Every structure is written in C-alpha cells, then in structure tokens.
Amino acid sequence: MRFPEGFLWGAATAAYQVEGAVGEGGRGPSIWDTFSHTPGRVYRGDTGDVACDHYHRLEEDLDLMARFGLGAYRFSVAWPRIQPEGRGPANRSGLDFYRRLVEGLGERGIEPVLTLYHWDLPQALEDQGGWTSRQTSERFAEYAALVYEALGGSVRFWITLNEPWVSAWMGYGLGVHAPGRRSTADALAATHHLLLGHGLALEALRALGGGGRLGITLNLSPVRAASAEPADAEAARRVDGNANRLYLDPLFRGSYPQDMLEHYRGASDFSFVRDGDLQRISAPVDFLGVNYYMRHTVRAAPGGGVRGPSTGMRFGELGAETVLPEGVGTTAMGWPVEPDGLAEILVRVKEEYRDLPVFVTENGCAVHDYIDPEGEVNDVERVAYLDAHLRAAHAALERGVDLRGYMVWSLLDNFEWAEGYSKRFGLVYVEYGSQRRVPKRSARWYAAVIRRGGPEG
To answer: What is the similarity comment for this entry (predicted)?
Structure first.
C-alpha cells in the first residue's frame, strides 16, 4: 500500500499547546492565558505557561522531526507574539522566533505548513468583543499580512484558521474552551466573523503576491442516525448542519444552509452578515485541510429510550447527542474509533462540494501512555489507530480524492486545552517536569511508514 510520489508526511502542533514562554519575547496575553488561569476552567488548574517549552527547546524538537524523517511540520503562529494587543506593528522578537523555526525546518529539508490561527486570540481583542465583532475579522487580515510579509518567501503552505467550529461553538456557544462564553447567538456571530476573517485574509495575502498556497482547516465528521426512527434522522441532519454544512456551504457554495438559518432564527437574526461577505468567504482556496477524529452517531435528546452509551458529546440547542455504536472502541478521550469515516468525509467533500487538493492536517488519538520499566512507551493502540486511518486515507485516494498529505496529531504530548496535561496525543512522550522527550513506539512505526511511503501490507 503506497501513497503517491511527493505525498507530504508530517506531524502537527499548536502554539499555545507546546511553546510555553508566555511572558517572553514581547508576547501579550491570549484568551487561553486568561481562561486557563481562571479556576475551574481547565483540569486541575493546568495552564500553557510552560507546556512543552518548545520555545526554548526548538533545536531539540527540530532534530527529533528530522530523526523521524518528517516531510512536513504543521505549526501555528501565536497571534499575541506578533501583535501583543491584536493590532499595530509586528513585534520583531515574535517574528524572529518563527523565522528561526522556519529556517531550522529548511535546513533539515522539512516543509513548513503554517497555521495563522489556532485559537489563541489576543485578550485585548476579546475585551472588545472577540470573534463576535466584525473588527476582529479585520484585525486578523492585518495580522495575517504581517506574518506573510515576514515569512512568505520561506513558507509555501498557509492555513488561515484551524477548526472554526471549535473556536465558535466550544468557545462562544458551550463555554468549555476560551473565552468561555455560553451563547448560541455569540457562537453564530463568531462563526461568521471567523469565516469572514478567513476571506479577508485571503484577499490580503493574495494582494501581496508571492505564490503561497492558501487554505483553511475544518474539523469534519460524517454523521449518521443511531436508528431508523425519524426523530434520530432529524437530529442527525441538524448535527450535520451545525458541524459540517455551516462551514462547508459558505466556503464552497457562498451561502449558509437554509435549514440552519431557519433552525437558529430564534437565536439570531443574522444581521451580522453584510452584502459581499459570502462572496469574500467563498473565494477559491488552493487546498482544504481536514482534521478527522471521529464519526458522530446521533440520537434525539432528551427523550426516548437509551439505545447505547452516550459519548458525552452534546450539541447545544440541537436536541441531539452522540452515542457509541455497539462494538466500536474508544480512545482515552472517549471518542469512537471508526477509521472508515475518514474516507467517507473526504469523498463527500469531493463529490458534494469541490474536487480540490486536500490534506489531512490532523489525525490521531489520546492513549493512556506511560514509560515502562524498560524505558519505552509501547503505545500499540496508537499504532493500530494510525495504521487503520492511513488505510482509510488510501481508500479515499483510490476513490479519486486528491489527497496530498497526512499529518499526525501530535508531534509531542502537550497541553490538551480544557483537559490540561491529562491526555496524551503525541508521537513523543513529554515528561513535563524534566521536559525529557521519549519517542514512542508509534514514532518509530511512523518513521518506517514514511521511509516506505505507506503502511505495510
């Protein structure tokens, strides 16, 4: 089983999850600094203040990437390192860190894949409305241009946003991520302004030229009903509308799905959508990044008999929750393991939206990892998970999907947002107190996959 010549094999991280050094180099506070330092928000009060200390251990981590033979490293730029207040001229020290990162990747023959926004909004902008404000969309385009002017000659692949659904709904709708708001109206406004920020950034970067390939990353999940009952089918349609179509439709069709507009009419009049916005949002991208972790099997809730254990994921104001199908295993996050869902969603994008270059920009799983008495981390569950998902990715290729690359989440164990340091996704075990890095069995397995150009068999 081989992937095409030139296929981009990589791993990914995000700035707040790995960098640490939150008060160094002129960096300003982000919403995640504020959120994680608020009692009760993050597991055991964990914060990203130190995280993996990637900021100071950059050379060590770059050498690890080269050791594994990575062809690409997807990282995010911390907006507060570039503009501590979310506006104004670029902070030279912040740009210098990312210059060192990009130069180090180039020296090792590793392709940089740069994400401009992975959830760490400058707190100063949140204080002025955050993503519920149109002003933040405009500030984002200005910030994107600053980074592009500094690094555009060294970086080919640019991702505007990572998972705008998570930013909008977990941050502004459900309150379990920063900034911790709980308002459907705010989540809808944030959805639009995140997408508008993407569109404005595309305009700004293309105006600068330079030939960078521009895209966006969405977390997408196939959705199916838990039963043949009409109530479950309707719940599944609503979840698909919220999780997938609310983002795919404006990006690729220039409109929001009508059933979602009608469903949320009581929460918002959508007056934040102005003439020309959807034209900007739907400007062509050079590629789409897809983050895949799970399929959603949905039942109507509340009411009805229990037909299987809930995965604990509820969708606010949709009258739906996810359930675990019989016989399906779970990760340490409690997420169902259904590799074929990756092929399903990739094919759907091609057939229903647009046939364009696609990268799997995140795929991975949390495992209850530990260092055994022999000094090894024998994460056989992660190896099995990644192997199965690579086979699903290959199946999508065989069905005509223009898949160009695959990036494991994550290179390093790191700060897992509201779960703090309790969940480990990395190819490399991080012993947080000492910051010692221990490559896991999965890292060695992935290095062999890269050398072969695909999994065995």
So the answer is: Belongs to the glycosyl hydrolase 1 family.
